[in-house]
Amino acid sequence: MCKWSVRGRTPSATLRSPPQHFLQSLQGTITHNCTVRPLGTTRSTTRSLLIMDSDEPETCKVCLSNYNETVRRPCTLPCGHTICSQCTKDAVQNALLICPSCHTEHSATADAQFPVSYSMEALLRKLKGIRLTSLAPESVKPQHSSKRKGKMLRSLTEEYRRNIDNFVFGCEEALSLMSDYQRRLTYWKRYHQQLEDGLNDLLEQNKAAMKPLKKEVISVANITPEGEEGRIRLKAMVVRLDTLDTAQEIVSTIDEYDLYYKETEHWIKKCKERFPDASSVHTSIKVQEIMKQFLKMMPVERKKTVISVTLEDPHFNIPGKIQKITEDLFCKMLTVEHLRFLNEPVKKLLIAGRVFAVKELADDTYYARITFKEGRLCLHSLIKQPLPAFAATLKHGYVLDLLNRSSTVAFLNLGCNGSPIGQVDIRVNHNTGLARQFIFLCTGQQGKTYLNTNLLRLGSHFDGGKFVVGGDYEWNDGSGGHSVLFNLKGEYGKLHEVGAVSSRFWPDQEHCAQFCIGVTEGYHNESDGIFGYVERGMGVVMAAAESTYMPKMTVMDCGVVLPL
After folding, report:
1. Residues 176-221: pLDDT tens digits?
2. Which DSSP category does 550 fall into?
3. Which among 427, 471, 475 is positioned nearest to 451, based on CA atoms?
4. With a cut of 50, which residues of the chain have pLDDT below it?
5. Distance, C-alpha 462 to centroid of its chain
6. 45 within 8 A of 36, measured Cβ to Cβ
7. Angle 478-484-487 from CA coordinates, rounded to 5°
């Protein structure tokens, strides 16, 4: 297989050793007959010399062997130059051939792509006859042979020079990556030092908080026996009073009681004045909270982490391996606090679709995607779905804790015949039961969800008001949609306007999970139970209301927006 030309600038390109008969022909002539390219001559100049080297048309420019009429017949390349038939067979095996004269790349799939040049064969036969009749003297042959060998040596030198240049480029690229890696390590080292300094400060605060606590413990331990002794004396005096008979004994006991009473009263007053030490308690509680938050955010990893990317992995360079290690580590250590801060590694996991909230429902496991798009963090509906490789999971309940308990934005992604048409954002108030039920069905917390439900119809009232009806998660035809929560009564809005969201029925009636979205002013329905308003995407609702394909409008996706 012939590889006299190197494709691209990759340090892994190799050059096959030259043919043995060529090396033997060079012995004894290299020192006084070869022509060496002088320093300063550019590679393009040398290439031009090789391309113009056409004074020996009987020689294949790839293997440097003479053409013949058997296994090394001259074949024409698409660029117009010729090589021998044996080299074309090698090219077919490699599926690629680079012309040795003009360096044009040709794809090689069959021998028929390189036809035999019969004109070249005829010319070579004629040239051979001319050379036989006008053969030069014996003294001239060594000079001609030396000239040919000098040109072949220059070609070989140029190929090896290109190969060396490729390796130099590879070394420079590796050195650049190592320099970047060294800068990254230096930054990490400095950051670890800052963390260590912060930890030391925290430990010093903890030690400072413990000192007054220790003194407080000693003070309580020292003062407690005095109060215990007074309590024992008073209890003994009560027992003694029951056994006294004479007035003298009673008077004496009362005097003793007065003494004990004053001592005990003084002790109680001293305890109230001295305890607790407000400064010690305040410092202790403050440091405890800081330590708890810190430990919660940065759990200690006691087991050694197994890294799936090895140094021998050929698919990653140094930055790629670092990114893969970082992503794998965040997948294993991701917490809700990471979602709160939303740093760059977490964003990459979210954009890649590798973060899920998990919940066990009726002996089945449901997963909800968590995505980051257009600057918004979204929790999608719980469904049964396979997890991607290296997925990061969080408990669904922990993610719901991120919601604002006073007001939440739910979203419905509408589509027609499987094609998305837009997203509708609805802001609801958690203070009403219908709003909480709407959130439940958008997130699928009980396995029931608005996902894949249809918009049922365009309703209208006697006053001309119109509204879009949807939300039958049970039968998808308007006959279902039972409540998923109890006690849905409450104070609901009654101002019906464009974008108002309400229940289709009274909260205490069946099918109250169905919802209505007003599309004209002045509409109202029987329930008057408005629990939300369209915040964004009203144009999508209007387009659905005006479409003749209303029954084919589907909620293709739903969920809630997590506040950042």
Report:
1. 888 888 888 888 888 888 888 888 888 898 888 888 888 889 988 9
2. G
3. 471
4. 1-54, 135-142, 300-307, 309, 311
5. 53
6. no
7. 115
- Would strands 392-395 and 74-76 be described as parallel, antiparallel, or unpaired? unpaired
Contact 534, 499 (CB under 8 A): yes
- From the list 561, 98, 221, the residue with the least C-alpha distance to 375 is 561
- Tokens found for residue 415: 């589509």
CA distances, 505 to each of 451, 479, 489, 529 (Å): 21, 12, 12, 8
Question: In this predicted structure, what is the pLDDT of residue 121?
Answer: 85
**556 close to 540: Cβ distance less than 8 angstroms:** no
How confident is the model at residue 312, as a pLDDT? 54
What residue type is 308 in one-letter code? Answer: S
Residue 115: burial class (beta carbons within 10 Å; 0-12, 13-18, 19+): exposed
Give the integer Cα–Cα distance in Å for 271 and 260: 16
Token pair of 454 as six digits: 């249809």
Q: What angle do CA 69, 70, 71 make, to 5 degrees?
A: 120
Q: How far is CA 182 from the centre of its chain?
A: 24
Measured over the CA atoms of residue 181, residue 187, residue 193 and residue 199, the dihedral's sign is negative
Do residues 272 and 211 lie in contact, with contact meaning Cβ atoms separated by under 8 Å? no
